[in-house]
Amino acid sequence: MGFTLKTENSLGEKMFITTLSSGAKCYIIPKYGFGKSEAVVSFRYGSADLRFEAFGERRTSPKGTAHFIEHKMFEKEGGNFFADFIAGDADTNAFTDFNKTAYYFSCKDNFEENFERLLKMVGSVYLTDENVEHEKGIIGQEIAMYDDDPNWIVYFNMLKRLYKKHPVRDVIAGTQETLKTIDVDDLKAAFDAFYVPENMRIVVCGDVEYEKISQIAESVIEPKVNGARRAAIKEPMDIGRNYISDSMELSKSVFNLGFKLEPEEMGIKKVYGTKMLLDIIAGESSYLYGKLLKSGLLDESMALQYLWGRRLSLAVIMGKSDAPKDVANCIAREIEKLKKNGINAESFRRAKKKHMGRFIRGFNSIDAICMAQTELAVMDCDLFDAFDMIKNMEKEYLEELLMDFDKFTAVLSVVK
User: Fold this and answer.
1) 213 Cβ contact list (under 8 Å, min separation 6)
2) Would you say 55 and 218 are in contact if contact means Cβ atoms under 8 Å apart?
3) Phi and psi (nearest 5°) for 378?
4) Phi/psi-derived region of residue 342, left when phi > 0, alpha when psi is between -120 and 50, beta in every other case
5) HSE-up of residue 409 (Cα within 13 Å, Cβ side)
6) Chain centroid, CA 55 distance in Å
7) Measured between alpha carbons, how far is 213 from 223 in angstroms, rounded to an integer?
8) CB 2 within 8 A of CB 9
9) Which residues contact 15 (CB under 8 A, 6 or more apart)?
């Protein structure tokens, strides 16, 4: 088994990368003296992967299928894996987003035992009519909880207004109605199609021996046929109405301002460039943020997000304000001013320094390393690639990205 050793001298870090005979890809980052180790196993299969062809059959999964599988992965005949991880002194959890599903654990001791347990867990799924019906009650409660969350509502209202066809407009867990339609056949078909080694990305960080970790993975992961081909996603750039509001009698309105960007082939340069650009536009050190604070339109910082995936590229600015339309208008004017005058060199230098500093600080956390690398692994990239990209980012490239921010493909979502 061959390894690629990558080093980043300015960070003082190293990483071992290998592709197993099964097709699964491993990223192993030795990190000593932190008192724990962590592993994440993710699959390039998320809530947006609804339409696909597998083993000669075209399928359309009910909304929420990927999230439902995540729930069922922890169950086994006669018990559940949560209890096994607890017995192994490990904390474990999982999450599903639009692009991937990830399972992870951390522990101080028994790492190899827990790592083998995690790999075996994701290799099969235990499904019966009875346990699927039982899980619907649990997931239904989760959906109901989100239905009462203004931050959740404002976000998905924005996505529904921005996207007409893309499955990103649908809530990750599905709805109470779609939940009722999910059955064993739906879950098994999606699992067989996407839970295959070629879709698998393994990230390990901590006090570990890279050769031993890869040997365990090589021995446990069984080869499977990669039978899935995702259906193309066709999404127009026009958005229709650019404002949507909901009422929950909040003391201060929450808002999301989303910019639908051209979804050309993604790469880490665009991902980190757009994140840096959002900081320049509306981050805590930006001219705009100071202006909004001084005027009283804001009294706390805004959250910034860049969302990407298949045929998906979206920048979001989130916050709270008594006058969200005024805030959105100020943001739009600031973007037009930056387009006209260019990005200030000092603002660019400050944003670049901030993102490099954030990246370096992230290497002080085992969990931050694992989650950041898991995000990058979807694109078959690694943390050192990303750090190099940030170090070498050019102001002119951000100005090119800025031209894609258009008020005619933006939506303001508000919950009052």
Assistant:
1) 26, 28, 112, 115, 204
2) no
3) -60, -35
4) left
5) 18
6) 28
7) 18
8) no
9) 5, 6, 7, 27, 28, 29, 382, 383, 384
- Please provide the DSSP assignment of 50-105 as one string: -EEEETTEEEEPPTTHHHHHHHHTTEETTEEHHHHHHHTTEEEEEEE-SS-EEEEE
Q: Which long-range contacts (CB under 8 A, 24 or more apart) does 399-402 make?
A: 399/338, 399/339, 399/342, 399/343, 401/270, 401/273, 401/274, 401/277, 402/277, 402/335, 402/338, 402/339, 402/343
Q: Are 233 and 280 in contact (CB under 8 A)?
A: no
The residue type found at 189 is A
Q: 234 and 57 in contact (C-beta within 8 Å)?
A: no
pLDDT in tens, 11-26: 899 999 999 999 999 9
The answer to whether residue 265 scores a pLDDT higher than 70 is: no
Complete domains list, the chain, with CATH: 4-230 (3.30.830.10), 243-415 (3.30.830.10)
Among 269, 268, 279, residue whose Cα is nearest residue 394: 269
Candidates 364, 393, 359, 399; CA nearest to 376 is: 359
Please indicate whether residue 75 is annotated as part of the active site.
no
Q: Are 304 and 239 in contact (CB under 8 A)?
A: no
Q: Specify the amino acid at residue 280.
A: I
Are the beta carbons of 277 and 402 closer than 8 angstroms? yes
Q: pLDDT tens-digit profile of 97-154?
A: 999 999 999 999 999 999 999 999 999 999 999 999 999 999 999 999 998 899 999 9
Give the E-state strand segments of 154-207 in sequence order.
Answer: 200-206
Burial class from Cβ neighbours inside 10 Å (0-12, 13-18, 19+) for residue 155 reads buried
pTM above 0.90, yes or no: yes
Name the catalytic one among 13, 38, 70, 75.
70
CB atoms within 10 A of CB 388: 14
**How far is it, in rounded angstroms, from Cα 122 to Cα 102?**
10
**How many of the other CB atoms lie within 10 Å of CB of 296?**
10
CA-closest candidate to residue 314, choices 255, 266, 375: 266
Give the CA count within 13 Å in the CB-facing half-sphere of 197.
19
Burial 128-147 (b: 16+ CB within 10 A, else e): eeeebeebbeebbeebeeee
- Shortest CA distance to 408 belongs to which of 261, 282, 243, 242? 242
Distance from the Cα of residue 375 to its chain's centroid: 6
230 vs 310: CA distance, rounded Å: 10
